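Quick one: structure tokens for this chain, please?
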Amino acid sequence: MWHIYWRFFGLTLHTRYARIRLIFTFQTRNIMRKQETTNTGFSLSYSSKQLSTKLYQCLLFACCISILLLSGCRRDDDTVVLVDQEEFSAMDRQIISDYLQNEIDNNASFTLLNPVSTSEIAAFYEYLDRNYQTLIRTDRVLNRDKLNWSIHILKDDEIKNTFITPGGAMYITTGMLKTIQTEHELVNILAHEISYADSDVLINKLKELYDGTVLFEIIAGKNPPELIKMAEGLQNIHYSESEVLDADSYAVDIICDFLYDPHGMRDFLYRVMETGEDLIWLKNRPSSNDRPILVEQSASGCGPGSTFESRYQMFVAKLP
């Protein structure tokens, strides 16, 4: 991400990160004076009195081109922040995620279950995190070493939902955990959600919903007013049917390498359909009645496995 600061007739360019997306080089003799050099960026200063008319025009032209190429700028007083709109790096996603996670953790709309409030809850958190991190460490998760993956429980028995931030912080309600009946259902649902953060799906959803400039402000270290709305809105992100099916396939790819019955999502969907339970999680992930069949077909190449129902029931009983 570039910051361009205009100071009278001078121009200073520097990068926030070590990676540099665009560089313009000007060949001059004694015109360019190096001001400072750091490990994470550089700064060059030009005096309008020293620059020839031709070189000054070239410099302005290069600046205009950089703005056109990178687009997506946000002006605050005399500061222009430029970010490539077509790509959000893992570092960008993590910065956005950290801000969102802080909002969720301090928002009265969410009640986090304290992981150390009782020994029973601590044991369940350990069990849940162990399963989550095991899924993350598979080769299928491309950003396994680039994001700060974590899992958190929201105390809400009425709402049955789970959602994830762009940086891999997953939130799951006690209502959802009590609706799940087996460990093979649990890991399938977790793996399904992981896909949205591991791919570009979730970050692109946020860009569409809240305008890219809001995300750029967060990356630049600002705290835009839309941040609260964005954090609260994560639980209601709506995915398309094709995105849901891709996430199902992604989850099967992960589960297939373990000793689980690979049909956890299929079994969960069939059971919820039969009971008619009202799950926000399913409302935001619409699909046809063929979804369980499609999940089963994608798992056809996996071997047999176990549901680990008794183990899951033993741990979920520790929830308040």
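The first strand starts at residue 2 and ends at 7.
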